[in-house]
Amino acid sequence: MSKLRIMSVFGTRPEAIKMAPLVKELAARPEIESLCCVTAQHREMLDSVLEVFSITPDWDLNIMTPRQTLSTITSKCLTGMDEAIDALRPDMILVHGDTSTTFAGALSAFYHKVPVGHVEAGLRTYDKYSPYPEEMNRKLVSAIADLFFCPTEANRQNLLREGISEGLFVTGNTVIDALKTTVSKDYRFTTKLLNELPYDSKKIVLVTCHRRENYGAPMEDIMAALAQVARTHDDVELVYPVHLSPVVQECARRHLDRIANVHLIEPLAADEMHNLMDRCYMVMTDSGGLQEEAPALGKPVLVLRRETERPEAVAAGTVKLAGVAYDDIVRMADELLEDPAAYAAMAKAVNPYGDGFACRRIADAVLWHFGLGEKPEDFHS
Ligand code: UD1
Ligand code: UDP
Known about the structure:
The structure is a single chain. By secondary structure, the chain is α/β, with parallel strands linked by helices. Helices cover 45% and strands 15% of the residues. The chain is built from 16 helices and 13 strands. It has a seven-stranded parallel beta sheet with strand order 3-2-1-4-5-6-7, sandwiched between helices. Strand 6 (147-150), helix 6 and strand 7 form a beta-alpha-beta unit. The chain is globular, with a radius of gyration of 20 Å. The two termini are 38 Å apart. The relative contact order is 0.13. The model has no long low-confidence stretch (mean pLDDT 98). Bound molecules: uridine-diphosphate-N-acetylglucosamine and uridine-5'-diphosphate.
């Protein structure tokens, strides 16, 4: 019997980190030929992940341009996917999360009548413009997908409430599978700065910020608040690998260049990022992925957004919504930096997002869909 051709489609850094362990799990199954199509919505940041996980794509749409718009990303992905699907003839396409690549990948699969599996399905804020455009992307993918790999039970409940009741699996988030392969206590960084940071004598605050809905006034406030936090705490070293978006680069450098205890650095490779997180004091971020990773490593997170589609770690007490207002961010950072009890209450390892076996469940579910195996048991936190 010929093998099932399962094609994973991704294009940005977070999708790549979260799909990499799945591409490998699929490749390890004798019944499956694991195919990989990248849109390269991100270029350098994607290539870095491909290198860390030793993945060579079967197809590369190479669409990225500086300051790309949502329409150009979507239209270039759609056009490019036609050729990829015709050439690679997948039996199923897997997309991840909520980016423009995700939406265009799912829509293209639908146009070719190829079934779609949605990895990281069911996350919602129910605010169409926040996160923007991700909330709409993931809702549109829910309308197209055949299989839904929900990280948590709450994500499954969201889909049930929307009338989606077939093809649902609770798998855990594949990012926890990825973390298991990257973090180690004796890890050596590639740069002198990260190897020689005073992890024991100072508080290393790890920062990232990139969301489109934060462009403009919210991002100005966030960066000003970060500058204030660094300036008012001698015992802090703020490490910020700046996203390559020119909008973010410009804003971050204007507020944070020339502050002695702020380190604006290039985006980090995934393994470096995960190990830096493992050694830091706390995380301040508007990233989705960091909200999932840091709790697993026992690191408190202040989320630089007004809402989150990841309420599980907030409920567990390791993540707090700081919002995007200057005063709120400074006040909440001050509390975590100055009040040992407040810090201790948040600095505990919790695993609401997975047990490291999400990819195994997803591969099992794909085989089950094609009548080639047992239905996997759901993940319970
Ligand atoms: C995208 C996703 C967002 C995800 C984020 C992860 C959409 C609409 N947005 O947002 O959901 O959270 O990725 O990081 O899908 N750039 C480079 N090199 C790179 C990557 C980006 O130069 O390797 C620059 C380019 O100028 C590019 C810009 O960053 O035009 C923005 O990239 P884009 O993918 O459009 O948006 P992100 O903010 O990265
Ligand atoms: N990440 C990384 N290097 C960096 C910043 C982030 O490898 O310099 C990783 C991070 O650990 C997480 C993922 O990228 O796995 C999150 O990506 P991002 O914040 O860009 O997107 P989001 O998760 O918000 O969609």
